[in-house]
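Researcher: Sit down with what I've pasted below and flag anything odd:
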Amino acid sequence: MKILFLGDIVGRDGRNIVFEYLEKLRLENNIDLTIVNGENSAHGKGISYKIYEQFIEHGVDVITMGNHTYSKKDIVDHLTLMPKMIQPYNHILQYHQGYLLLNCQGLEVCVTNILGSAFMHDNAMSAFKAMDEVLSKTKSDIYFVDLHAETTAEKLLFANYYKELGGAIVGTHTHVQTADERILGNLAYISDVGMCGVYDSIIGRDVDEMIDNIVYGNKTHYTIAKGPAILNGVIIEIDEKDKKAVSIQRISLKPY
């Protein structure tokens, strides 16, 4: 089984590079399951129903989210029409499903989305308690976890604690791809998958606006960068017989 996961998709340019390369990536790598993080896909914060539909039309099987899940207020009115999206299981707002069960290559795969605790403000419980609750409610063959968290230490600790699970734990949220992909026990792991968004930016945000705001202390409007984008992701292979991860490969398609 091969799983393609693309990291935080930021704004229009991030969406466009995903739409440009997704089919090619799936076909060339014989992908069985495609998952993307869409929590920044609508102008850098949240997702819209229209964008959700675009992801599904392009072959995405599951959309994970993060702390910005409900940044677009009207999203709650459309949740019943978004069965392939999951919110973080431990998000303080419990409007939608926190995991999704799928049949892939004859195996049941549980895809879940969990918020970390360090420097995060929207979690209702620790990542460990959240994962334990998911495990108490499911008996899946494979577990795929999008751990949306700030610190590499928390992510690595989480992965070590659950390393006997077959599947993958991938980090999102910081938008900078880390070079620590590995097989940890039965899991594929990486601290952060990175982002799909404008390359010359501050994690997807306009550089000049960020300087004006952070360096000079001026009140600014949240501005998404525009320009050529990078595409970050991972391809994870799972042995279907013993239900263990056997490889994880980073993807980083840079515009120049």
Q: What stands out?
A: The longest helix spans residues 11-28. The two ends are 32 Å apart (CA to CA).
